[in-house]
Amino acid sequence: MSADCLFCRIARGELPAHKVHEDEHVLAFLDLHPIRPGHTLVIPKDHHVWFEDLPEALATSVTGCAQRLARAMKRLYRVERVAMFYTGIHVPHAHAHVVPMHHVHDVSSAAYLADGPEGYAVPPQLPGDEMSRIARELQDTLQ
Ligand SMILES: [Zn+2]
Q1: What are the tens digits of pLDDT across the range 26-52?
Q2: What pLDDT, on a 0 to 100 scale, did the predictor assign at position 1?
């Protein structure tokens, strides 16, 4: 826990939130600035800044909550897909965004927008040897 962390304060009940789910380890509540109605944040109750630093069991609890939310959102909003992502932006307490996707660019990268918001550009492929190098680099760094 961190005394002045916004999300720790929400997890402790010191600040209000539109809670969607709460259990011993995880809290899910509506994002104050939703991409789409239903856009929810899932946080571990313990303070961790980066998702990659979450203990794996806790990360699994966050993901499991996001999966249950996604199934509910599909039923509720009649969407084909739900996005789940961590960005690490805004609040330095790991939080997964869960967003019902009504449009293919609801959570898009500019890399996919070359054809404009109604199109969907496929970013250019990197040369095979560069892809091999990047894969090796990642594999080696994972050790
Ligand atoms: Zn925190």
Answers
A1: 999 999 999 999 999 999 999 999 999
A2: 61
**Is residue 119 in some structural domain?**
no
Residue 5 CA, ligand 1 centroid: distance in Å:
5
- Closest by CA to 35, choosing from 105, 88, 121, is 105
Structural domain including 34 reads 6-107
Q: For residue range 94-104, what is the model confidence (pLDDT) as tens digits?
A: 999 999 999 98
Predicted model pTM: 0.91
From ligand 1's centre to the CA of 99, what distance in Å?
22
In this structure, what is the dihedral angle of CA atoms 68, 74, 75, 78, given to the nearest 10 degrees?
170
Query: Would you say residue 56 lies in a domain?
Result: yes
Distance 14 CA to ligand 1 centre (A): 12
Domain count, the chain: 1
